[in-house]
Design brief:
One of its GO terms (biological process) is NAD+ biosynthetic process. Keywords: Glycosyltransferase, Pyridine nucleotide biosynthesis, Transferase. Pathway: Cofactor biosynthesis; NAD(+) biosynthesis; nicotinate D-ribonucleotide from quinolinate: step 1/1. By secondary structure, the chain is α/β, with parallel strands linked by helices. It folds into two domains: 150 residues, Aldehyde Oxidoreductase, domain 3 (Alpha-Beta Complex), CATH 3.90.1170; 154 residues, TIM Barrel (Alpha-Beta Barrel). It has a six-stranded parallel β-sheet with strand order 6-11-10-9-8-7. It has a four-stranded antiparallel β-sheet with strand order 3-5-1-12, covered by helices on one side. Helix 1 crosses helix 4, helix 3 runs antiparallel to helix 4 and helix 8 packs parallel to helix 9.
Length: 311
């Protein structure tokens, strides 16, 4: 085990960006602690029975696997709320990594010092949130590495865990990815069911622009013909769904050929989605799309194994 003097020190878990709202962290930690301890202040019958409130200790937050870390921004708030529930002082935290850092097995991410009860009661909430976020960041980083030099970016989707969307999307950014729409409210996406309900792609786009003229309109296309139809109808950008690579390349070429025509933007943003894997990422990027959107970043990423070890 590394000694404290041998570890790099980050005085704060500075995030890749400031986008994880402190109020969201507070509410989420409160809900997680309620689940674990029961309604506030709750109790941990094992820890409180076996460890006196006056006992102090030091614990290391450690990576057990290689990956990209995220979610360290929840640690301090989890300790603060846990200490308040127990009526004990808040432990001190020294960070040796920050969100977005690549880590290796055995690496100490943070060192926590204070009342042992607080450390152990907070343990699972810290690990649940940080392990999940780090898993998403690790999956995203794999795509980011594959796309390096292609000009394409990896995007997330709305396929997130209910209640944890902000954390999931924050973790995507920590892994070098880009957020797409945050929800149903900020970008319109016309999909096949909307076209069926509205009667046509053009009718659906017109309806959205009439009701919500302030939002961008993306249209999902399964074929080259649908993509060009959406372009003619005034779509701002296109989602090319589940196309084989050769069809995708042909569609991109057809759209690029129309760029700058009357009513068509000089550059139409194109997004590939469906059946996208790390192994296939570069070949898809080299079709000329701007983005690859990957639901698996948030709906299927395994956690990054983290542990909290008392010293």
């Amino acid at each position: 085990m590394s000694t404290p003097d041998a570890l790099p020190v980050r005085t704060t878990p500075s995030a890749v960006d400031p986008g994880l709202d402190p109020d969201w962290i507070r509410r989420t930690v409160e809900t997680a602690l309620d689940e674990d301890l029961g309604p506030a202040p709750g109790r941990d019958v094992t820890t409180q029975a076996t460890i006196p409130p006056s006992a102090t200790g030091t614990a290391d937050l450690v990576a057990r696997a290689a990956g990209t870390v995220a979610g360290l921004v929840v640690v301090a708030e989890t300790l603060r709320q846990t200490a308040a529930r127990l009526g004990l002082p808040t432990p001190d935290v020294t960070f040796h990594t920050q969100d977005g850092d690549a880590v290796v097995p055995g690496q100490v991410l943070a060192r926590l010092t204070g009342r042992t009860q607080v450390l152990l009661v907070a343990e699972r909430t810290v690990l649940n949130l940080a392990s999940r976020a780090s898993g998403v960041a690790t999956a995203t980083a794999a795509f980011t590495r594959e796309l390096a030099g292609t000009g394409a970016q990896v995007l997330d989707t709305r396929k997130t865990t209910p209640g944890l969307r902000a954390l999931d999307k924050y973790a995507v950014r920590a892994g070098g990815g880009t957020n797409k729409r945050m929800g149903l409210y900020d970008v319109a996406m016309v999909k096949d069911n909307h076209v069926v309900a509205a009667g046509s792609i053009a009718a659906a786009i017109t309806a959205v622009r009439t009701a919500f003229p302030d939002v961008l309109v993306q249209v999902e296309a399964d074929t080259t013909a649908q993509a060009l139809e959406a372009l003619d109808a005034g779509a701002d950008f296109l989602l090319l769904d589940n196309m084989p690579t050769d069809v995708l390349a042909d569609t991109v070429a057809a759209v690029r050929d129309r760029q700058g025509d009357d009513g068509v933007p000089a550059h139409v943003e194109l997004e590939a989605t469906g059946n996208l894997t790390v192994e296939r990422a570069r070949e898809v990027a080299f079709t000329g799309v701007d983005y690859l959107s990957v639901g698996a970043l948030t709906h299927s990423a395994p956690i990054l194994d983290l542990a909290l070890d008392l010293r």
